[in-house]
C-alpha cells in the first residue's frame, strides 16, 4: 500500500502533532505464536470478547484523549492515512498522497466505492466537512489543537482533496495517520451535532466494524461490516467489555468469560506466559516509564545531582526482577520504535559514581527529596519504592507520596513553579504520533508554566537544537539534530530518570488467533478468529 | 455490677477468645521491633517472591522484603490507625451527642440532621473526599475513618444521654445550678458508657476494614510503610503467584476484625444484663 | 416524614457541593486532557459555569436539582440523570437480592444462635456469619471468583448480563450483611425470649418451635426489619468495591470514576440520588416497623 507515492513517506517532520496519550503499559518484542489468522472454519465462534480496564469515554474521534476510546474508535472509523502495527504510515481512505513543491499543499486521492455505515458515500466533500467540523471553535472539539496548522481544505473533484497548511509542516503525515484524523459520517455528525459519538446510533464511520449497542461501563457491541474494502473480518461480533480490576480481568480470562484482555497486571505475566491455555502477545511500545525532575527545586536544579540519581538506579534489577523481563531498560529519552530515536545506551548502575557526583555537587551526605507517584501507572507504587530504596544506598532520603489520578494531573496543569510542590514525579508517557518532535519538544522546551513541560526543564542548547530540528526537512540532518537533543536531555542535563521502555501486552485464550497488538496501545481484531 | 459484668463476659467463650486474640495481636504489634526477623523496609530485588524459609518464615514480597516482618510492623500501623481514628470519632461524637442531649432545642435538631446527612452519605466517597482534601497520609486516613464512625457514636450518646437528662435527680441538680460539664461527667456520661464501649469495639474492627478499602482504591497508608490493608490490596495481583504473601494480611485483617466483633458483642451482653435472659 | 427528609437532602446537597469544590483538582483540566491549551481549559471552565461565584453555583445546582435537572457529565457529556437511570437498576438489583440473602441467612442464624444461647452451636454460628463481615469485600469477591469461576467453573466471573451473573456478587454482599442481621436477630430474640407471655405460652403446652416462630420471632421482627432496611440503604450507597471487582455497571463504580475525573455534576447527582434512596428506604422501613408494632406508633 502506498507504494506509488514514496513522497508521502518523507520524514520531514516539523511542528508538533499528536497526542501525548498516556499509553501506559508497553514494551518490546513481537511475539507469541498465534498471530497468524486461521481460516474461518465452521468451528469458529462468531463473537470475541475483549476486556480493557475502562469504558470508552467517547466514540467521537475529534474528542478522544484516552486509549480506551481510541481502541473502539480505531475499529469504527478510518482516516485518510493510518499506522500499521509497525507504525509505518499507510494509506487508508486515501489511495495515494503527495505534497507539492511549496511544502504546504497536500493532495490526497481518495479510495472509491467506500461508504459510511449508513450507506452515505465517502467522498472529498465528507473530508472537507470533517475538517470544518473539527476546526469549528464553536463545537469545542478537544482535538482542535492538533489541526491548527491546517489553513484550508479544498475539494478538487469528488475523489481528490487538497489540504493546505499555513506553513510547511513536517509532521503532517503522522497527524493525518493519528486517530483523531478519522473521518466521521458528515450526515450523522450533522444530525447529531454535539451528541455525535455519545451513543451507538450517534456513531458512524467507514471502519470494518459498526457499533450495534453501547451500554455504559458494561459493553460495546461491534459488528463487522460485510464486504468492507479491507476484506470482511472473520469474526462477526467483537464485544468490548470494561473490567476495571486487573485481578478480575485475569480471572475472567482464565474462567473463559472473556477471550482477550489488555493491561495484564505485571506480577501475573510470568504465570500467565506459562499457562497452557493462554498466549501472551507482546509488541514494543511508544511508552516508557520514567521519573521526571522538577528543575526548580533545590538540589534537583544541579545537573550533577540528577546524573547521580540516574547512576544510582539499577535498571537491570528492575527489569529482571520487578517487571519480570517484559520490559527493556531505556536507552534514550525516546523508545526505539519512534522516528528520530537515537540509541544512547543504558545508563549503568554505578553507585560509586553517583556518590562522587553528589560530593562534587556539594551533597556528600545526600539530601531529602519527595517522589510523587500514582497507582494509575502499572507498578507505579512499587517503582517508587524501589527508587527510594536505591537512592537510600547513595545517601538520598526519598519520601514517597501516592496521589490518585485527579490530584496527580492537577500538578501538571500549567502551574507556575512556585505553586508546584512535586519534586521527583512518575510519568509514563508516549507521543502517539510516534515522532521525536512531539516526543521531545513540548515536554522539554523552555516554557513559563508546566502545561506540557511538567518539570520546567530548561536548557538553552536543547531549545536551539529542537527548534532547528522542527524546521529541518533533510532526513539525515534532522536525525543528527534529534540525536543531539537526546544526548542533552538524556545524558548531559537529564530531565528525567528513564527506567524502562514498556511493552504493550495482551493475553489471549489459546483458541483465539489473529489478534494484533499495536505499539500505540490498541488491539486490532480484523483478522481475529475464535475457536 | 462490675463484677457481674466481668463474670458474664468470662462466661462468653467466643468473646473471651476474641479478647485473647486481640491481646496477642496487640502484643505482637507492640513488640514488632523485637519480634521481626528483618527490617520491614529492606528492599532486595534479587530475592523477591521467595517461598518460606528459616530466614523468611512467610517468604518475601515483590520487592524482596520479609513478609513476616512487614506483617508484624503492619499490624502496628493498622491497629494504631484504627484506635486513633475510633478514638477521635468517639471524642467528637460523644461531645456532640452530649451537647445535643443537654441543650435540646435547635442544637439537638441541628445535630440530628447532621447525623442523618452523614449517615446517608456514601461512606467510601466521604473518605475519598477527605483524603483528596488533606492529601494522602496517616492523618487523612484517621480523619476519613473517624468521619465514618462519628455519626454512630453521636447517635448512641444522644439516645443514652436523653434518657438520663430527663431523670429527676439531674433535673434537680440542674435546678440548683450545678455546672453542666460536671453534671455530664458525673451523671450523664456513665449512662452512655456501656453501649459506647461495645460499639467502639465493633467499630475498631470496621476501621481496619475501611482502611483496607481505601488502600484498594490506592488511598491508604503511604509506601513503603507496611500496613495490612495496603499489603492486602497489593496482594490482589499476587494471589496466584505468591499466595502466602497475599493471604497473610487478609487472614490477619479477618481475624482481627472478627475478634473485635466478638469481643464487642460480648461486652454488650455483659454490660447490658437485660439482654441476657435469666 | 417530609419534615425530616427534606433537611437531610438539603444537607447532603450542601455537603457534596462543598466537598466537590474543596477537593483539589480542576475538572476542566482533567476533562481537557493532558496536552490541552490553557484557552481550551478556560473555555471548558466557563462552559461548566465554574468561573461563577460559589454561592451562585450552589443556588444553580439546587434549583436545577429540585426540577430534576442534574446537569451534564463532564466526562461523558451525557445527562447525569440519564447516566444514573442507566446504572441504578444494576445497583438496586444487587442491593435487593443481597439484602434478601442476608435476611434469610441472618434471621436463620440468629434464631439458631438464640435458641442454643451460649452453647457451642451459638458460638459456631455467630463466628461463621461474622467471618464474612470481617473480610474486606473486594478480597471476598476475588476469592469467590477464584473458587467458583476459575477452579470449579460453576459460575460466570464478571458482568451483569444474566441472573447467573448476579450469584457471586449477591453472595459476597449478602454474606457480608448477614452477620449484622444475625447479630440483631439473636439480640432481639434473647430480649423477648425471657418475657412473661412466652413463659405462659410454654406453660400452656404450646410446642417450643411454635413459641419461637409465632411469638418470639414475630416480636423480634421490628428491630430486625430496621437493620435490614438500614443494610438495604447502605448497600444502595456502598457496593462500590464489589461493583468494581465484578465489573457491574452500577452507581457506586460510576461515582468513584466521577471522583477521579472530578466530574462535579456526576458526583453531585450521584450522591443526591443515592441519599434520596437511602432516606426513602429508611422512611419506608420506619413505617413498616410502626405498622408491625403498634407500641412504636404511640411512643
Structure commentary:
The complex is a heterotrimer of chains A (531), B (278) and C (299). In chain A, the strands form six sheets. In chain A, strands 2, 9, 10, 11, 12, 13, 14, 15, 16, 17 and 19 form an eleven-stranded mixed sheet that branches. Chain A has a four-stranded antiparallel sheet with strand order 5-6-8-7, covered by helices on one side. A two-stranded antiparallel ribbon of chain A has the order 1-18. In chain A, helix 7 runs antiparallel to helix 9 and helix 13 packs antiparallel against helix 14. The relative contact order of chain A is 0.19. The longest helix of chain A is centred in the C-terminal third of the chain and has 18 residues. By secondary structure, chain A is an alpha+beta fold. Chain A is 26% helix and 22% strand. Chain B has 278 residues and is mainly alpha-helical. The longest helix of chain B has 37 residues. Chain C is mainly alpha-helical. Chain C is built from 14 helices and no strands. Chain C is elongated, with a radius of gyration of 23 Å. The mean pLDDT of chain C is 83. Chains in contact: A-B, A-C, B-C.
What keyword list fits this structure?
heterotrimer; A: 531 residues; alpha+beta; 4-stranded antiparallel beta sheet; 14 helices; 26% helix; C: 299 residues; mainly alpha; elongated
Amino acid at each position: 500500500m502506498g507504494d506509488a507515492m514514496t513522497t508521502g513517506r518523507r520524514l520531514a517532520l516539523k511542528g508538533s502533532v499528536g497526542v501525548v496519550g498516556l499509553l501506559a503499559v508497553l514494551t518490546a518484542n513481537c511475539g507469541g505464536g498465534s498471530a497468524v489468522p486461521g481460516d474461518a472454519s465452521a468451528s469458529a465462534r462468531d463473537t470475541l470478547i475483549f476486556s480493557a480496564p475502562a469504558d470508552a469515554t467517547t466514540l467521537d474521534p475529534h474528542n478522544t484523549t484516552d486509549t480506551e476510546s481510541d481502541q473502539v474508535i480505531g475499529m469504527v472509523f478510518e482516516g485518510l492515512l493510518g499506522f500499521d502495527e509497525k507504525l509505518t504510515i499507510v494509506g487508508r481512505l486515501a489511495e495515494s498522497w503527495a505534497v507539492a513543491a511549496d511544502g504546504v499543499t497536500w493532495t490526497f486521492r481518495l479510495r472509491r466505492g467506500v461508504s459510511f455505515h449508513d450507506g452515505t458515500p465517502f467522498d472529498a466533500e465528507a473530508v472537507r466537512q470533517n475538517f470544518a467540523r473539527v476546526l469549528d471553535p464553536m463545537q469545542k472539539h478537544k482535538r482542535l489543537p492538533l489541526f491548527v496548522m491546517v489553513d484550508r481544505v479544498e475539494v478538487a473533484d469528488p475523489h481528490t482533496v487538497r489540504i493546505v497548511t499555513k506553513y510547511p509542516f513536517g509532521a503532517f503525515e503522522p497527524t493525518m495517520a493519528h486517530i483523531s484524523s478519522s473521518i466521521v459520517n458528515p450526515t450523522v455528525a450533522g444530525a447529531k451535532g454535539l451528541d455525535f459519538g455519545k451513543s451507538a446510533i450517534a456513531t458512524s464511520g467507514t471502519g470494518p466494524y459498526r457499533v450495534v449497542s453501547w451500554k455504559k461501563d458494561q459493553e460495546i457491541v461491534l459488528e463487522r461490516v460485510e464486504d468492507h474494502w479491507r476484506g470482511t473480518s472473520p469474526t462477526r461480533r467483537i464485544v468490548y467489555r470494561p473490567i476495571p480490576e486487573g485481578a478480575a480481568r485475569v480471572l475472567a480470562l482464565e474462567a473463559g468469560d472473556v477471550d482477550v484482555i489488555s493491561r495484564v497486571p505485571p506480577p501475573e505475566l510470568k504465570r500467565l506466559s506459562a499457562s497452557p491455555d493462554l498466549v501472551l502477545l507482546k509488541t514494543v511500545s511508544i511508552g516508557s516509564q520514567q521519573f521526571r525532575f522538577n528543575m526548580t527545586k533545590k538540589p534537583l536544579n544541579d545537573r550533577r545531582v540528577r546524573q547521580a540519581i540516574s547512576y544510582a538506579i539499577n535498571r537491570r534489577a528492575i527489569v529482571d526482577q520487578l517487571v519480570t523481563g517484559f520490559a527493556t531498560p531505556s536507552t534514550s529519552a525516546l523508545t526505539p520504535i519512534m522516528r528520530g530515536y537515537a540509541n544512547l545506551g543504558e545508563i549503568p548502575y554505578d553507585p560509586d559514581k553517583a556518590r562522587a557526583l553528589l560530593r562534587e555537587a556539594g551533597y556528600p551526605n545526600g539530601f531529602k527529596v519527595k517522589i510523587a507517584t500514582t497507582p494509575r501507572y502499572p507498578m507505579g507504587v512499587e517503582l517508587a519504592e524501589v527508587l527510594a530504596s536505591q537512592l537510600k544506598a547513595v545517601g538520598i532520603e526519598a519520601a514517597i507520596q501516592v496521589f490518585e489520578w485527579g490530584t496527580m494531573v492537577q500538578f501538571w496543569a500549567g502551574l507556575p513553579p512556585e505553586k508546584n510542590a512535586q519534586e521527583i514525579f512518575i510519568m509514563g508517557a508516549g507521543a502517539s504520533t510516534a515522532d521525536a518532535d512531539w516526543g521531545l519538544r513540548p515536554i522539554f522546551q523552555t516554557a513559563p508554566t508546566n502545561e506540557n513541560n511538567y518539570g520546567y526543564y530548561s536548557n538553552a542548547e536543547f531549545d536551539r537544537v529542537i527548534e532547528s530540528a522542527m524546521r529541518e526537512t533533510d532526513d539525515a540532518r534532522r536525525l543528527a539534530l534529534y540525536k543531539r537533543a537526546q544526548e542533552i536531555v538524556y545524558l548531559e542535563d537529564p530531565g528525567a530518570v528513564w527506567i524502562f521502555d514498556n511493552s504493550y501486552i495482551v493475553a489471549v485464550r489459546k483458541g483465539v488467533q489473529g489478534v494484533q497488538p499495536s505499539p500505540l496501545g490498541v488491539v486490532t481484531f480484523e483478522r481475529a478468529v475464535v475457536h | 455490677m462490675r463484677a457481674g459484668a466481668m463474670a458474664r463476659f468470662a462466661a462468653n467463650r467466643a468473646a473471651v477468645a476474641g479478647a485473647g486474640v486481640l491481646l496477642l495481636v496487640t502484643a505482637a504489634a507492640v513488640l514488632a521491633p523485637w519480634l521481626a526477623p528483618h527490617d520491614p523496609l529492606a528492599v532486595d530485588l534479587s530475592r523477591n517472591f521467595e517461598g518460606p524459609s528459616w530466614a523468611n518464615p512467610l517468604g518475601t514480597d515483590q520487592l524482596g522484603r520479609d513478609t513476616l516482618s512487614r506483617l508484624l510492623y503492619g499490624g502496628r500501623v493498622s491497629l494504631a490507625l484504627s484506635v486513633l481514628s475510633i478514638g477521635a470519632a468517639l471524642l467528637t461524637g460523644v461531645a456532640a451527642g452530649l451537647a445535643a442531649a443537654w441543650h435540646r432545642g435547635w442544637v439537638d435538631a441541628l445535630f440530628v440532621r447532621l447525623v442523618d446527612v452523614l449517615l446517608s452519605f456514601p461512606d467510601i466517597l466521604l473518605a475519598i473526599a477527605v483524603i483528596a482534601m488533606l492529601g494522602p497520609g496517616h492523618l487523612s486516613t484517621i480523619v476519613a475513618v473517624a468521619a465514618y464512625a462519628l455519626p454512630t457514636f453521636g447517635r448512641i450518646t444522644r439516645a443514652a444521654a436523653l434518657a438520663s437528662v430527663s431523670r429527676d435527680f439531674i433535673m434537680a441538680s440542674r435546678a440548683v445550678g450545678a455546672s453542666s460539664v460536671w453534671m455530664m461527667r458525673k451523671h450523664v456520661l456513665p449512662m452512655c458508657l456501656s453501649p459506647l464501649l461495645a460499639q467502639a469495639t465493633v467499630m475498631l474492627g470496621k476501621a481496619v476494614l475501611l482502611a483496607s478499602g481505601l488502600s484498594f482504591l490506592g488511598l491508604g497508608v503511604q509506601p513503603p510503610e507496611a500496613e495490612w490493608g495496603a499489603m492486602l490490596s497489593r496482594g490482589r495481583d499476587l494471589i496466584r503467584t505468591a499466595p502466602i504473601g497475599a493471604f497473610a494480611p487478609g487472614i490477619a485483617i479477618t481475624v482481627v476484625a472478627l475478634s473485635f466483633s466478638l469481643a464487642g458483642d460480648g461486652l454488650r451482653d455483659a454490660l447490658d444484663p437485660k439482654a441476657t435472659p435469666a | 416524614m417530609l419534615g425530616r427528609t427534606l433537611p437531610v437532602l438539603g444537607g447532603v446537597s450542601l455537603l457534596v457541593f462543598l466537598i466537590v469544590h474543596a477537593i483539589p483538582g480542576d475538572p476542566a483540566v482533567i476533562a481537557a486532557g493532558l496536552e490541552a491549551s490553557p484557552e481550551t481549559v478556560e473555555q471548558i471552565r466557563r462552559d461548566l459555569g465554574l468561573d461563577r461565584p460559589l454561592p451562585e453555583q450552589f443556588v444553580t445546582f439546587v434549583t436545577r436539582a429540585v426540577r430534576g435537572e442534574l446537569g451534564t457529565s463532564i466526562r461523558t457529556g451525557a445527562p447525569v440523570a440519564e447516566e444514573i437511570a442507566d446504572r441504578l437498576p444494576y445497583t438496586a438489583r444487587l442491593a435487593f437480592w443481597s439484602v434478601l440473602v442476608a435476611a434469610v441467612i441472618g434471621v436463620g442464624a440468629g434464631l439458631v444462635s438464640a435458641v442454643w444461647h451460649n452453647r457451642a452451636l451459638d458460638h459456631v454460628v455467630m463466628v461463621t456469619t461474622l467471618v464474612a463481615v470481617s473480610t474486606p469485600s473486594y478480597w471476598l469477591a476475588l476469592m469467590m471468583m477464584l473458587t467458583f469461576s476459575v477452579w470449579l467453573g460453576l459460575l460466570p466471573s464478571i458482568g451483569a448480563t444474566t441472573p447467573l451473573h448476579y450469584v457471586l456478587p449477591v453472595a459476597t454482599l449478602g454474606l457480608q450483611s448477614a452477620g449484622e442481621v444475625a447479630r440483631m436477630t439473636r439480640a432481639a430474640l434473647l430480649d423477648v425470649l425471657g418475657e412473661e407471655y412466652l413463659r405462659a405460652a410454654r406453660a400452656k403446652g404450646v410446642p417450643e418451635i411454635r413459641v419461637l416462630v409465632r411469638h418470639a420471632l414475630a416480636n423480634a421482627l421490628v428491630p430486625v426489619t430496621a437493620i435490614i432496611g438500614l443494610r438495604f440503604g447502605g448497600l444502595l450507597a456502598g457496593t462500590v468495591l464489589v461493583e468494581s471487582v465484578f465489573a457491574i455497571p452500577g452507581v457506586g463504580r460510576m461515582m468513584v470514576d466521577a471522583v477521579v475525573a472530578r466530574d462535579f455534576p456526576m458526583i453531585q447527582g450521584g450522591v443526591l440520588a443515592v441519599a434520596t434512596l437511602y432516606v426513602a428506604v429508611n422512611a419506608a422501613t420506619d413505617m413498616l416497623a410502626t405498622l408491625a408494632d403498634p407500641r412504636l406508633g404511640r411512643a
